[in-house]
Amino acid sequence: MKFVALIKYRIMSRLLTLLFVTLIGLTNLFGQSDSSQVTKKYQAKPKSVYPFGKEAFLKDEKTTIRWLGNAGFLINSRGTRVMIDPMLKEFDMPVLFDAPVATSDIPELDAVLITHSDNDHYSIPTCKDLSKVTKAFHSTIYVDSLMQNEGWNSFGHAISDEFIVGNINIKITPADHQWQNAYPGFAKRFFKKEDCAGFFMTTVDGTIWATGDSKLMPEHLNLPDPDVILFDISDSEWHFTIKGALQLAERYPDALLICSHWGTVDAPDFTPFNGDPEIIKAQIKNPERLIVLLPGEPFILNQSKK
Ligand SMILES: [Zn+2]
Questions:
Q1: What predicted TM-score, i.e. pTM, was given to this entire model?
Q2: pLDDT of 155-167, one tens digit each?
C-alpha cells in the first residue's frame, strides 16, 4: 500500500474514530453508557522471531516453508529455493520485528516470485540485494517491466501461465487488487487486473498456493485442492476480508492455512496490516489447520501427516 493511499485511509479512520468518540461522549452525557468501555487499540503480532541463516537453504529430502513476515515466504523444496514477496528491509512504515533472515545471509535462490507492485510485496531494497543471489525473478508482466528497468533477470507472466523453477511447477492464479484506480490522480497509470497475481506451486511433497493480495474471486473457488494456502487474513475490502477468508477455508476443507499478511507492519488502525489469526480461528471449521508460524519458524510440508 503506497503512502498517499495510506494517509487517505488514516484520515478516514481518524474521522470515523472521532465520530465514534463523539457519539460515545454524547451517550455518556445522557447517562446511557459506562465510561469504562473505552477500548485500547490492539494489534495481533507474533510472540517472537525464529532467526535462521544459511542452513535453511541447504538441500534435503523435504519441503520446508518459512514465513518471513507480511506476505513473504521462503520455500525450500528438496533444494529448490524460492522466495515469495520477501520484504526483509527498509519498509516505509514502522515494522513490529526484524526480519528472521538478513539478505546478506541468503547464499543462493532459484527464484524470487513477486505477486504485485505494492511495496509490501515488491520491496525494491530487498530485491536489489536478492538480485545478486537469485537466478531469476518471476512476476506479472507489469512488475516484470519494472524489474527490467532495474536491470534484473526477470520474467513476466500472464494469468494461467505455467513455468518451472527447479523441481517446482508454478501456475499463475488471478487476483483483483487494483486499489490505485479508486483514488483518481494517485497513480500515473490505470492498473489492470492482471497486474496482480498469485502462485499455485506444485512440489514433490504437495501443493502450495500463495494467493497474493486480492478480493475473493470466483476463480479462487475453482482451483485444484491445495495442500497449503498461504492465507491472507486481512479484513480489508481490497483483500479477502474475514468473510471471504472463511469462505475460501470452507471451500478447501483439507487445506492447511498458514497465516499471512498480519502482525508485521505497525498499523493497528489499518485493516490491510492488522489482521488477527484468533478472529479467524474462532470462526473457522476445524481450526487446528490454521497455522500461525513465528517469522522464520520452519514448517515441513508432508501430505501424509495432514
Ligand atoms: Zn499487501
A1: 0.88
A2: 999 999 999 999 9
